[in-house]
Amino acid sequence: MADTKMASQLKHVESTKAPLHALASSGLALLHEPNQNKGTAFSRDERQALGLEGLLPHAVESLDRQVERVLSHLDTKMDDLERYIYLIGLEDRNETVFYKTIMSDPKRFIPILYDPTVADACLTFGNLYRRARGMYITRHMKGRIAEVLRNWPRKDVRFICVSTGGRILGLGDIGANGMGIPIGKLQLYTACAAVPPDCLLPVLFDIGTTNESLRADPFYLGTREPPLAEAELDELTEEFITAVQEVFPDCCVHFEDWKGTDAIRMLDRYRDRILTYNDDIQGTASVALAGIAAAMNITGGKLSEQRVLFLGAGSAGIGISKLIAAEMQTKGLTAEEARARIALFDVNGLVEASRTDLTEAQKLYAHKGPPTKDFVKFIKEFKPTVLIGVSTKAGAFNQQVVEAMSQLNERPVIFALSNPTTKAECTAEQAYTWSKGKALFAAGVQFDDVEFEGKIYRPGQANNFYIYPAIGLATYVARPKRLTDECFIVAAHATADQVGPALCAKGMLYPSQDQILETEVTTATRIVEYMFDAGLAQVERPRDIRAWIEGQLYKPHY
Ligand SMILES: NC(=O)C1=CN([C@@H]2O[C@H](COP(=O)(O)OP(=O)(O)OC[C@H]3O[C@@H](n4cnc5c(N)ncnc54)[C@H](OP(=O)(O)O)[C@@H]3O)[C@@H](O)[C@H]2O)C=CC1
Ligand SMILES: CC(=O)C(=O)O
Ligand SMILES: [Mg+2]
């Protein structure tokens, strides 16, 4: 009897995403499983077989009709934070409708789920909180982290995005409120590169926070303690990494938005030991290199001849410096010659050799000249062709700075990478106006087009989301042993190569976001080719890499 019933159920649910035996739930419980729920799209047969009769309204709808309803709901929302809250709720109810919606119009939805709206969502995370998503690891789990990770219901976790919340965008230390970032970063693995969502796990590594006002906030959801001291943090991270290896052996650990010095130390410690990368260091470096390479296609300049000045010498500044220097060395410069073409400023002025507060990573780029805090004067002396802001200091690229760059260069490359919008070193309008339309400009967020003296200028968005989802997709399919800096250099060139002549003519430095999936699959294909060539991939090389990747893409349908 039971067998006959099961056979008839199987017949009825042929069209469901997972075969019946794989469905964890039926009845009401199934409607509360976001990765299996089809809501009003369950067919009559499915409703009968799965105990759903009477639990849904009569109509049987298509996925497209469900998306239409979502879009109409979004139209009634007052602002993007409300849309963000609604979309996260949708993901909690029906993952397929969520991704179908996002992937139908990535250009519209990236700024809602991610930068800049995610900044507001993080700042108010404790107030907005509705439902658990991802995992929280605290110091109180010390000695039991592997056991805790086993509470995650899925076993084939392929990516963990982990943040301490110690430096969320340019917002500083916001502790457990930073969970919005691992969630948003991983959503873009799927939305931009079709990495299956089932294999993604956001983790907030709750080590405490320096943020006293948050610790006093009644709605704060993290541990209300100051952060762990460095040695304790290292010990807890070591246990976490070991536990991840044990519980999810095929998992890549993506570090995101840790305090700058912690970020650099962890990458140095783990990059040769496990499958890992730091997006703020390596992903950001790659997207900056892509933008510079695209700018060179416009100006006709050579990357090895550029002089690059940074405002900000933290994880992003050091990461970009390292990748640019590596790229310059492939063009024949020695390491010393390459580094001499790079200079960095931080809170204390020029990073130069007499300073006693420099980290080992900063010392490599210490300028030989005398100390100075005068940024504009230094621009005139150093004569940069490329200016990159990764300082979190809004407005630091003032009129004097932009004018100094424009006097030195026919087409100054100016990147205001600090996030979110309120932290950008200058706006697109300022860059184009003060440079009189000469600047090749990009920012961490997408600024609107600017009209200056009758001409329309299209700012680029130099954000690591052009890179890390493609790195994720390449890693998902090729299962490399390690992620090397070369993977990020390949990703940078693959991205720049997709800025065709039409986009170049408009001064655009990055591919259009309308076609982000196509772009990232192309980038991933190049990365995977490199992984096979370099002996990093651990699967058999297919004859047609692109087709093989396309066959593994997540598609939001029932
Ligand atoms: N567009 C993108 O894709 C990405 C953008 N970013 C953005 O870059 C910014 C920095 O990130 P990250 O490097 O990881 O952060 P870090 O905290 O590691 O580094 C920040 C750096 O900026 C310096 N700084 C702070 N205030 C000033 C100031 N007033 N003048 C000059 N320098 C200053 C700091 O100096 P000190 O250490 O002395 O305080 C430090 O060197 C953030 O806003 C982040 O959102 C980061 C990654 C990707
Ligand atoms: C984009 C990003 O990773 C950051 O601002 O930290
Ligand atoms: Mg980041």
What is the compact description of this entry?
Helices cover 46% and strands 10% of the residues.
Descriptive tags:
26 helices, 558 residues, binds pyruvic acid, 46% helix, 3 domains, alpha/beta, Rossmann fold, five-stranded parallel β-sheet, disordered N terminus
Q: What is the straight-line distance between the termini?
A: 29 Å
CATH topology of the largest domain: Rossmann fold
Number of separate strands: 14
Helical run tally: 26
Biggest sheet features: 7 strands, mixed
Rounded Rg: 24 Å
Domains counted in the coordinates: how many? 3
Strand ordering within the main sheet: 8-7-6-9-10-11-14
Shape: globular
Bound molecules: NADPH dihydro-nicotinamide-adenine-dinucleotide phosphate, pyruvic acid, magnesium ion
Mean pLDDT comes to: 95
User: Unreliable runs, pLDDT <50, ≥5 residues?
Assistant: 1-17
Give helix % range. Answer: 40-55%
Protein name: Malic enzyme
GO molecular function, one term: metal ion binding
Pfam families: malic, Malic_M
Keywords: Metal-binding, Oxidoreductase
Annotate the secondary structure layout.
Elements: H1 2-12, H2 27-31, H3 44-49, H4 63-75, H5 80-93, H6 95-104, H7 106-113, H8 117-123, H9 125-128, E1 135-138, H10 145-149, E2 159-163, H11 180-193, E3 200-206, H12 212-215, H13 230-247, E4 252-255, H14 260-270, E5 276-278, H15 279-299, E6 308-311, H16 315-330, H17 335-340, E7 342-346, E8 349-350, H18 360-363, H19 375-382, E9 386-389, H20 399-408, E10 413-416, H21 428-434, E11 440-443, E12 450-452, E13 455-457, E14 460-461, H22 468-478, H23 485-496, H24 501-505, H25 516-533, H26 545-550
Parallel strand pairs: 1-3, 2-3, 2-4, 4-5, 6-7, 6-9, 9-10, 10-11, 11-14
Antiparallel strand pairs: 7-8, 12-13
Residues 256-257, 279-280 line the site of magnesium ion.
